[in-house]
Every structure is written in C-alpha cells, then in structure tokens.
Amino acid sequence: MNTTWMIRVIWGAGAVQVGIMAANVPLPGRLRVRERLASVPNFVRQIFYVHWVYIIIVLGLFAALCFGFAPDLAGASALGRFLSGFMAAFWLLRILLQISYYDREIRRDNRVLDVLYLASLFVLVVILGMAALRPVFWTWSTPHPLAKSTRRMGQSAGGRGEV
C-alpha cells in the first residue's frame, strides 16, 4: 500500500461523505420529520433542525479535509493522523448507534438504505482507520515520503556537520 493509493482512497472517503450529505437532503421528507415533530414544542423542533444542519456542516468539513488535506490524513503529519483517527472513531461510533440505538422497525422498513448506509460507514472506518494506523507500521529507518527532511542544513547523513 503506497502513499499515492492511500491519498486516492482518502479522496474516495471524501466522496462517500459527500454522498451521506446528499442523502440527508431528502431524508426529512422520507422520515416524515415535519409530521412527527408537529406535536413537540417549537423550541425543541428548532433545536432538532439546527442540530441536523450542524451535522451536515460537520460532514462537509470532513469531506473538505479528505479532498484538501489527503496527504496529511494519509500520514504526512501527526495532526493528519490524529484527524484520520478521530474521523474513524466518529464513524465507528455512528455504526454502533445505528445498530444498537435507532428504531429497528424504521431500519427494517428502509432495509436497503440502512444496509447501504452501514456499508458506507464501514468503508469510512476502514479507510480512515488505515490512514491513522499506517504510519505506526512505518519503519524508523525509512522516512515517510511526504515528511519534511529532519536533517539540518549543513549536516550530512552522518550528522557530523560536514557539508
């Protein structure tokens, strides 16, 4: 697994997240959110909609990270590895919630979408988890191809300050 391949699959993870964002557009109608929230106080309804929009914004930011900073997420920086790990954990938690918390009847009524969504989340966890853990298995003797040189100016490979 080389760095170029990892960058490309991270771009794929960005595309999956854009797909999840797009799926959230028709979802309120499909789930009859307006009808189901009609009986709750207006303030609770407002909180629900604001949270929904914020989640979509976060998904957009995750996708932007994947498209704009794929080399970092692939292991070129510690912050990139951290963000890859964070996103992998975020999506893993979402899988657990989807399976254990969400209404089974609604999931059963929408089985194809549920399975497609879980498969998408699984792909995200695998890609981002690999990106986060990949540098851990990199040997110390081989510098990461995207890492900046740690050698100071004026030092040779032997570190004796020879030019």
Descriptive overview:
With 163 residues, the chain is mainly α. The chain has one domain. It has eight helices and no strands. α1 runs antiparallel to α4, α1 (3-23) runs antiparallel to α8 (111-133) and α6 (78-100) packs antiparallel against α8. The longest helix has 27 residues, at 42-68. The chain starts with a helix and ends in a 30-residue tail after the last helix. The relative contact order is 0.14.
Helix content: over 70%
| Backbone CA Rg | 21 Å
Distance between the termini: 35 Å
Instruction: Count structural domains.
Output: 1
Dominant shape: elongated
Which percent range describes the beta-strand content? under 5%
* Main pleated sheet: none
Are there runs of 5+ residues with pLDDT below 50, and where?
none
Number of strands: 0
Mean pLDDT across residues: 87
> How are helices and strands ordered from N to C?
HHHHHHHH
Structural class: mainly alpha
Count up the helices: 8
Summarize the structure.
With 163 residues, this protein is mainly alpha-helical. It contains eight helices and no strands. It has helices at 3-23, 27-30, 33-37, 42-68, 70-76, 78-100, 104-109, 111-133.
Attribute tags:
163 residues; 71% helix; mainly alpha; 8 helices
Topology:
Blueprint: H1 3-23, H2 27-30, H3 33-37, H4 42-68, H5 70-76, H6 78-100, H7 104-109, H8 111-133
Helix pairs in contact: 1-4, 1-5, 1-8, 5-6, 6-8
